[in-house]
Amino acid sequence: MILGTAIALMAVLMLVAGFEMLMVLGIPALAVKAGFFDRMPDMILVQRMTGGINQSLLLAIPFFLFAAELMGRGQIAGRLTGLVRALVGHARGGIGYTTIGAAMGFGAVSGSAPATVAAMGHILYPELRRAKFRDRFSLGLIVSSAETALLIPPSITLIVYGWITGTSITALFAAGLSVGLVLGLAFAILTAIEARRSGVAGDPRASLAEIGLALRRAGWALGLPVLILGGIYSGLFTPTEAAVVSVVYAILVEMRVYRSLDLKGLIAIAEKSAVQNAVIFLLLALGTALSYFITLAQIPGLLIAGLEAVRAGPVVFLMIANIAFIIAGMFVDPNSIQLILVPALYPVAASLGIDPVHFGMIVAVNVTLGMVTPPFGLDLFVASSTLQTPVAEIIAGIWPFILVNLLVLMLVTYVPGIATLAPSLLM
User: Fold this and answer.
1) What is the torsional sign of CA 100, 254, 218, 60?
2) Whether residue 206 has pLDDT greater than 80
């Protein structure tokens, strides 16, 4: 009990004090080792950290991030957007639906919400304003639509959850597709209400010839999600192999077909991607160490005993878990949220008979919410940098989407079939 309290208290104090997440994860682990396990050889902790990230599954993360950077800098994002607009742009508020559909499409080839904001923001924000959507709503729509990239496979968030819990990535991807579509539909309903309220018109209806042209222009771009998802669900290759294929495909398309990228640009993207991945894997290694001490402190067992003492079942536990994730999401990046909370909460969920895929979707929706929740939602700052707009202005436009997110979270939490139906049919 003392050990668990020490870990939690130290991490919370460091978060409040504004320490970097690398220190929030690392210092409590090192301090607990020094104070409670001083006789433990240092090499054991090192082996835990290196062994935790020495898994082929995690290789999917750097490859998908690299592919996302390639596509964001090239033409794949723009051509996907053009196709979606040709299909739905004629509806009232069609550019709003285009934003949601294009974000989901880009998410299906990148798995990264910040990359989706950066790639789609500068393309769609001027179009949303030109269509007479309110500025704040336009900003909120771009930032929120990018959240679907954390649910639509290949989702890096789901890969990290699967690594922590040992849950099937294929099953998580199937569930993520279902939940991502529900979230996208909810955003579309909100967009329809706003379009009617603001008197937003649609584009002229595209002719069959124009749709055919957009389809031909986006043909190579469409090939990537088909290749990735089709390959995974057909069993042709694993998620890790799919990540490698996505990089090779993106390089060939951007450099040889679209010719939007040269060797110098490729090297610059590789350098940027390498720095991002170094930070992520250091976080994962430190998270492994912290999870090890959470296990030694028997925190999951204490939580289970506490719930049994007050006779709390799955309904109450999931409410508590959601509150914990929502609060953490206001201050902590998505990977760190999972590294801190999932090792403690997942065993409790399992003991209560909650399906691991269902719990994974609850975690994923909370993580997507955290990406846009003030004061430190990561996508808020990515959008501010991309669109040259004050963060306060973006926050002002995000609140309706946060409410929609919370409604979807409640649906996913207490209607398990939304998350579990697709995996059960697939598996």
Assistant:
1) negative
2) yes
